[in-house]
Amino acid sequence: MDTNAVDSAVDGGHLRAFIERIEKLEEEKRAIADDIKDVYAEAKGTGFDPKIIRKIVSLRRQDKHKREEEEEIMELYLSALGME
């Protein structure tokens, strides 16, 4: 394709605005991830287990029905392995 045709078909200003918004959001996402890491470190410092806290956060995010279904399957598998 002719680069002149591409230049006329793409609005550089509009594209730049999208890219800059994405970059800003990515920067905010990194800052939030750092904040979350700090909270886990604080929880660990007060005696809580961050690994377990992460699991609880994950479980709370799930739909109750889906979580119960997964727990039933887990119990079935553990039972089959003699680990109940």
UniProtKB/TrEMBL annotation:
InterPro entries to which the protein is assigned, alphabetical: GapR-like (IPR018753), GapR-like_DNA-bd (IPR046367)
Keywords attached to this entry: Coiled coil
Domain of life from the UniProt record: Bacteria
Residue stretches making up the GapR-like DNA-binding domain: 13-82
Stored Pfam families: GapR_DNA-bd
Coiled-coil regions listed: 15-42
Family: Belongs to the UPF0335 family.
Stored HAMAP family: UPF0335
Protein name: UPF0335 protein SS37A_05830
